[in-house]
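ok, trying the design again with the full structure, not the truncated one.
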């Protein structure tokens, strides 16, 4: 089926790229002007410098000058002074503000002053670890400081020398969890001499992953304490609203917070771009528009990074951009894709190519959000709202790095949340970044971390208390279940096999699924992700090529694929069934109220849609038979009295519509990504035989999202009402009420009845 087209976007850059001038010229085109929904220019910011109160060592001064660093920004100097006082430290400044010097300098000073001293750097991704290792090697005085990267890609023959000889060991929480802590006897000399622990990109540690990392850090600090050592912790993060709380939850310690950014920044033009409406009433696919913008920028010689919310989008944008460049005679091979699932060799090659300038454009997932240095970028295109204000700012911050001006464009999808944002840009641009939601006290996560800790060393009640107030109770439950054994005043792990290898701290269920093409591994995928994206019949996209999944063998954690050029892509259909276990809080009347409830969620991948490459047209719907996935979590629950609508269809349409509208705007008030929440609706919920709507946390045990929704329930309901009222459609459309993920294919929705229901709910809560 042919894709819908739009008029090609022309961008020229003969005299260097000036975002404001380009935008002014582009808007002379009526077609472009209609799509530019909102523009804001963020003014440039000058640098603020400061001297450290403690002098740096002559070796470091020399290395800084060799790197053309004559002065330190104010936050770098303040961080150095605080760290050298031995304080635990949290640095919270913007993208490209030079945060890495805030930990490099004190760590190197410690090693230079005490040659036996050691430092441990933790990064959330291997790519970022490799990037920072190369920067540190350029800065570190050689041969006085030895640096080693210790992760899953490190050859076995190099691991022992790194463990014994490296002054700075660079790794990630996964390797710390599964490779270092369970084998801590081999690391005893390192742990005794560990003086500094660096935790970079702290804002990435959210949800299940962050909750697990909180346990992993406590396990590390516990082993250091056993060696009579207390290393200082230096954390760095993009701007978040709860830095003290985040540091405390991740480490169990309080930190000195440095949040006044002294780095310079160029002016930035931020554009909200709303694709044109089609005769059908839908809007042109955001993937297509993002690809057109990427191709136009690349053709103009402008270094551009396009961020996509999903792997399939990153691959589709790459395909469309190459097609567009090919038709216009542009540099087809100057565009690549980058996402998780690529082999380490592929990732390193792509990073080098764009850094060297061999690539001008990259279509990436948020794997590129975390500051990997790929050289100066002029423009960033966001293919849809990335899910949080924090990510929005991080991604836009990649454009115009340093004092250069930059362009940031967010392409809105025909999606209720993104259309709401386009109409209310202040909700994103003027809103404080979200609090990072994590919960190391989540009972399911805590149980796994306590088992790992008990394997590493027998766990005393005092040790358990360091994991949180409820940890001792969880340890006792593990003892009663036979997963721990209590004796001689300590909890023991009753096996010689480390439990860490079976605990996926990234939150995926079960082992990683290998994707095989002719017995060669194309990539890997978490079990649940494989059930939704690598099931039989799915189209898997990889670096511009497409593959058909012929079989998913969950028993062997393997999916078998074959190359196939497909003029469609696939989207799974997930159905959720809820059972309420307990009501925690409630407001409203007896018959009609909003509550916070503990629930059991059962998710089933019931089928998938084949969708045309225009992104909207459904070609077919296929059924699947895959095992269910059940877990306990928290939900915001809405109970309604018997409907006042006369028509049975309107009664159904109101409840179903309320579910869509509430879920659409919920991420703004939970401070999370859309994929972190799920929903369900019932015309007659079994417990009450009355209508009910649930919005639930997809993390087992919950990580605080639904508590935030419950606390902000009135704002949340008002936003859902505004979403529907602001849209000019009559019966509901993709911009307000329809959802591409609806398991019922958007049938039985009634916009007017939904508005009446939400208005009644709002009045009830006043």
């Amino acid at each position: 089926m042919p894709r819908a087209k739009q008029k090609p976007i022309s961008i020229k850059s003969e005299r260097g790229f000036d975002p404001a001038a380009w935008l002014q010229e582009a808007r002379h085109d009526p077609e472009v002007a209609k799509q530019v929904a909102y523009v804001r220019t963020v003014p440039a910011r000058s640098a603020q410098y400061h001297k450290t109160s403690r002098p740096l060592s002559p070796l470091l001064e020399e290395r800084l000058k060799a790197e053309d660093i004559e002065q330190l920004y104010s936050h770098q100097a303040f961080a150095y002074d605080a760290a050298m006082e031995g304080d635990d430290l949290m640095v919270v400044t913007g993208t490209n503000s030079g945060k890495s010097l805030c930990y490099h300098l004190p760590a190197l000073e410690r090693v230079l002053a005490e040659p036996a001293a050691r430092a441990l750097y933790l990064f959330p991704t291997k790519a970022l670890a490799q990037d920072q290792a190369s920067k540190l090697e350029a800065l570190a005085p050689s041969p006085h400081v030895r640096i080693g990267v210790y992760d899953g890609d490190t050859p076995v023959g190099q691991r022992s020398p790194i463990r014994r000889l490296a002054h700075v060991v660079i790794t990630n929480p996964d390797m710390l969890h599964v490779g270092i802590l369970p084998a801590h006897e081999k690391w005893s000399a390192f742990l005794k001499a560990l003086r500094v622990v660096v935790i970079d990109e702290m804002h990435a540690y959210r949800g299940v992953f962050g909750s697990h990392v909180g346990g992993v850090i406590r396990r590390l600090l516990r082993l250091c304490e056993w060696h009579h050592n207390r290393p200082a912790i230096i954390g760095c993060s993009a701007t978040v609203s709860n830095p003290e709380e985040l540091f405390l939850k991740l480490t169990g310690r309080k930190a000195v917070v440095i949040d006044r950014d002294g780095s310079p920044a160029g002016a930035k033009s931020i554009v909200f771009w709303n694709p044109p409406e089609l005769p059908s009433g839908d809007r042109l696919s955001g993937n297509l528009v993002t690809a057109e913008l990427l191709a136009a920028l690349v053709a103009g010689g402008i270094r551009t990074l396009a961020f996509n919310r999903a792997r399939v989008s990153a691959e589709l944008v790459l395909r469309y951009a190459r097609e567009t460049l090919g038709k216009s005679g542009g540099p087809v091979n100057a565009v690549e894709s980058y996402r998780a699932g690529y082999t380490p060799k592929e990732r390193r090659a792509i990073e080098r190519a764009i850094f060297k300038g061999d690539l001008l454009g990259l279509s990436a997932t948020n794997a590129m959000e975390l500051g990997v240095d790929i050289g100066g970028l002029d423009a960033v295109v966001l293919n849809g709202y990335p899910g949080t204000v924090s990510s929005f700012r991080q991604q836009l911050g990649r454009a115009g790095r340093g004092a250069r001006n930059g362009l940031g464009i967010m392409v809105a999808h025909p999606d209720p949340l993104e259309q709401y944002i386009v109409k209310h840009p202040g909700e994103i641009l003027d809103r404080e970044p979200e609090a990072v939601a994590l919960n190391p006290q989540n009972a399911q996560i805590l149980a796994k971390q306590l088992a790992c800790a008990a394997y590493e060393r027998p766990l005393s009640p005092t040790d358990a208390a360091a994991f949180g107030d409820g940890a001792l109770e969880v340890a006792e439950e593990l003892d009663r279940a036979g997963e721990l054994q209590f004796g001689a005043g300590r909890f023991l792990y009753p096996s010689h096999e480390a439990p860490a290898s079976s605990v996926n701290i990234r939150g995926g269920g079960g082992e990683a699924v290998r994707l095989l093409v002719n017995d060669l591994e194309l990539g890997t995928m978490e079990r649940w992700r494989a059930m939704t994206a690598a099931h039989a019949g799915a189209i898997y996209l990889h670096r511009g090529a497409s593959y058909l999944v012929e079989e998913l063998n969950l028993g062997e954690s393997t999916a078998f694929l074959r190359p196939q050029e497909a003029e469609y892509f696939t989207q799974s259909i997930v159905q959720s069934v809820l059972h309420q276990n307990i009501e925690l809080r409630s407001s409203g009347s007896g018959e009609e109220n909003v509550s916070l409830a503990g629930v059991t969620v059962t998710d089933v991948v019931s089928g998938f849609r084949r969708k045309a490459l225009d992104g909207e047209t459904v070609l077919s719907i296929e059924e699947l038979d895959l095992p269910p996935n059940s877990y306990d979590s928290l939900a915001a629950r809405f109970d309604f009295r018997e409907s006042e609508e006369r028509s049975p269809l309107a009664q159904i349409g109101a409840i179903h519509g309320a579910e869509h509208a509430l879920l659409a705007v919920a991420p703004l008030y939970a401070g999370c990504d859309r994929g972190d929440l799920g929903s369900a609706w019932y015309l007659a919920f079994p417990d009450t035989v009355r209508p009910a709507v649930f919005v639930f946390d997809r993390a087992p045990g919950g990580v605080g999202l639904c508590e935030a929704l419950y606390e902000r329930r009135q704002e949340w309901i008002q936003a859902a009402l505004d979403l529907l009222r602001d849209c000019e459609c009559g019966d509901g459309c993709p911009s307000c009420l329809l959802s591409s993920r609806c398991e019922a294919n958007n049938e039985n929705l009634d916009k007017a009845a939904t508005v009446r229901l939400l208005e009644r709910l709002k009045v009830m809560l006043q």
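Keeping the full-length input from now on. DSSP finds 25 helices and 29 strands in the chain.
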